[in-house]
Specification:
Elements: E1 23-30, H1 41-55, E2 65-69, H2 76-83, E3 90-94, H3 101-114, E4 120-127, H4 147-152, H5 163-178, H6 182-197, H7 211-216, E5 219-221, E6 224-225, E7 234-243, H8 244-247, E8 255-263, H9 283-296, E9 305-307, H10 316-322, H11 331-336, H12 353-356, H13 363-374, E10 386-390, E11 397-403
Helix pairs in contact: 1-2
Length: 406
């Protein structure tokens, strides 16, 4: 299997600059991140939504658009009724789990840019630790005759039932092709936990780890250790998107949406795309990256920080390659050189990521991207004019470039 070389800065077919900088994230809000919230998912969602609206300096009655995940259990009408909103002119949902995160902002930005809505709230809330645990995969789930379950039936009889098991297949092939090691994956985990250790909002606040502790953690699905896997979280996160012009008059510096894209690769099979010529890359992320660079007019060298979806450490490495921060097979050296640290070339997941702060299907990562643009991160690595944010990997995915200036 030979990886296909892709130029992530090349314009993707159909890419346009029409959306760039026409909308901005003006408000962010979240609940606490816990393992047992003691509240319903609707309660969590409403808390996060109200906090984001307050942060934007707006009133619930001004919201006329809502976007969330198809996986979210909190319907738009109940969010609107329980937070004091009025008429909702736009509502939409994005599929594919964590891959939806940046897609919610993309749809909100399109709604604002086209006049379909003026104030759009994106939200995600769940009791993922105390309720339905995504890490269990297909085990013990009710049988159904839908197309997704039929596709999984080709994998589950062979012991490929959970996300960790699915990703282990990709990780092993990546190690074989490029010489990456478990220690390389561990360096990602150590960096994320170091950032979480100084973030009071993170579940793993004041709990950094060493590479030796990573290596000693128990196996989940070889070559994945426990500390290669993101945590499970109860909580909620919301974001407010308005026009770029309106954002200038609100309390916080706007995080302009310089690029917003979604992508699904050829022969995509959710997290089990084993039928491609190569399984050591993430072509859907390459597609997202090419669109983001085409829309924004930026290149990898212009990106000062990144929020990379880190549900499993091995998939952070090919993201760096697909997005043009290093060449194929070079991510292990990029990480070894300390480039993801706060003083490195590309400070990454300054909040601690899903490995260290919380697993909110990537929505908390978008919020950290906004804080970096505002200069308000607890681990602020100097001025950040542009930050790139990614959503779920191994699935149809999405991404954003947030900018300080239009």
């Amino acid at each position: 299997m030979t990886a296909t070389t892709t130029d992530p800065t090349a314009a993707a077919g159909g890419a346009s600059t029409g959306l760039a900088n026409r909308a901005a994230v003006a408000g962010i809000g979240a609940t606490e991140f816990s393992k047992d919230s003691g509240r319903s998912e609707l309660h969590l969602a409403c808390e996060a939504v109200r906090a984001a609206i307050d942060d934007a300096g707006l009133e619930p009655s001004e919201v006329d658009g809502l976007v969330t995940f198809t996986a979210d259990t909190n319907s738009e009408i109940h969010i609107a009724r329980n937070t004091g909103m009025g008429q909702i002119r736009h509502f939409s949902r994005v599929h594919y789990g964590g891959g939806a995160a940046c897609g919610t902002v993309a749809q909100a930005a399109m709604a604002v840019a086209t006049g379909a809505a003026d104030v759009v709230v994106c939200y995600r809330a769940f009791n993922e630790r105390s309720g339905v645990r995504y890490g269990l995969g297909q085990a013990d789930r009710a049988l159904s005759d839908d197309a997704d379950r039929a596709a999984y039936s080709w994998m589950t009889p062979f012991g490929l039932s959970t996300p960790a098991q699915w990703v282990a297949m990709f990780a092993r092939r990546y190690m074989h092709e490029y010489g990456a090691t478990s220690e390389d994956f561990g360096r990602v985990s150590v960096t994320m936990r170091r950032h979480a250790a100084t973030n009071p909002a993170a579940w793993f606040h004041q709990r950094p780890i060493t590479l030796a502790e990573h290596q000693a953690s128990r196996w989940i699905a070889e070559p994945l250790h426990l500390l290669d896997c993101c945590q499970e979280t109860d909580g909620g996160q919301a974001l407010v998107v308005v026009s770029a012009d309106r954002a200038k008059d609100l309390p916080h510096p706007p995080a302009y949406i310089a690029g917003a894209a979604q992508g699904s690769g050829p022969d995509q099979h959710m997290m089990t795309s084993y039928y491609r010529p190569s399984i050591s890359g993430i072509p859907e992320m390459g597609l997202v990256g090419s669109q983001l660079y085409a829309q924004s007019g930026l290149r990898p060298d212009d990106i000062a920080a990144a929020i990379l979806y880190d549900h499993f450490t091995p998939l952070v490495l090919p993201q760096l390659e697909e997005l043009g921060f290093c060449g194929r097979g070079e991510a292990k050296d990029f990480v070894r050189a300390g480039n993801l640290e706060l003083d490195g070339r590309l400070p990454c997941n300054t909040h601690g990521g899903q490995l260290g702060e919380a697993y909110l299907h990537g929505m908390n990562g978008i919020a950290e991207g906004v804080r970096l643009i505002r200069g308000a991160s607890v681990n602020q690595p100097g001025e950040v004019p542009h930050v790139l944010v990614t959503a779920g990997t191994g699935v149809p995915t999405s991404g954003l470039i947030l900018a300080r200036d239009r």
